[in-house]
Amino acid sequence: MRLSIVSTMYRSEAYLREFHARVRAAARQVTEDYEIVLVNDGSPDGSLAAALGLQAEDARVKVVDLSRNFGHHQAMWAGLEHARGDWVFLIDCDLEESPEWLALFAREQETSGSDVVYGVQEARGDRWSQRWGAWLFYKLFNALCDDPLPQHLMTVRLMSRRYVDALLMHEERSFVIAGLWARTGFQQQPVRVAKAGKKATTYSLFRRAKLFVEAITSFSSKPLIFIFYLGVVLFTVSALIGAGLVTGQLLGKGMMAGWPSLMVSIWLLGGLIIFCQGIQGIYLAKVYLETKRRPVTLVRQVYERPGGAARHERLRLVD
Description:
The protein has ten helices and eight strands. With about 325 residues, the chain is an alpha/beta fold. It folds into two domains: about 5-125 and about 145-205 and about 295-305, Spore Coat Polysaccharide Biosynthesis Protein SpsA, Chain A (Alpha-Beta Complex); about 220-290. The longest helix has about 35 residues, at about 260-290. It is elongated and about 90 Å long. The two termini are about 15 Å apart. The model is unreliable at about 310-315 (pLDDT under 50).
């Protein structure tokens, strides 16, 4: 198998037929030896039935049906596990990322010799709050983590088999896949592309905040180090204040009284303690999940027609 095209499905019924037609045409521009792997991430609409209809018409289509909804990143991981190609083209099927970029990425790979060619969004068409939220996410993530992420990183990417194999060597159960893309290394080449805005984002403010916490705690221990230094600073400041009050009492200046300052101090320190314990609890919960060694996803069934993708001689992707 020369090329695997991997995509996930969640409320994707409306896009699948057009996606299949366009991605099949794009694949034929680079090789006739390809497969299309569609992963059903517990979609509540008719995505699975639509994908099985495509699979009945096209023997190159493989459908991986997960037992429930595990999440976008976990579904992509399952798709990569089932991809057999020497090259893997990962793309969302909602048509915001153009299937025709495959040829562009293939040419860029031939020129640069990279193991990964990935898309970077030229300009975000989101609301200002989403743009600023994305900017803040990348700034904080790159400040706290050792493996920085390119700003406006997209899902779409063309990856070599050795890169995919190295990526799948990670045995983490709780992860943000973009962080693993960066951590895996190899030579990676960005390509600036214009993303289409066909639908509203499914990432709410809560989901974005959850993703941020997941990303930071998966790839950085700096929040724990920050808690240590914060404790040192607070202890030092408290010791100095205490020494000053004792000194004032010995000199007969009396103690400063005031319920407002006392209550503010109690609430401030109480909230800070709870915040720090929350950070520690998140890390402890991740250790708890990792030690259980639960599978990243569970597959209900794989729909595949034997001998669906025949090998051909005409190839345009290079190692």
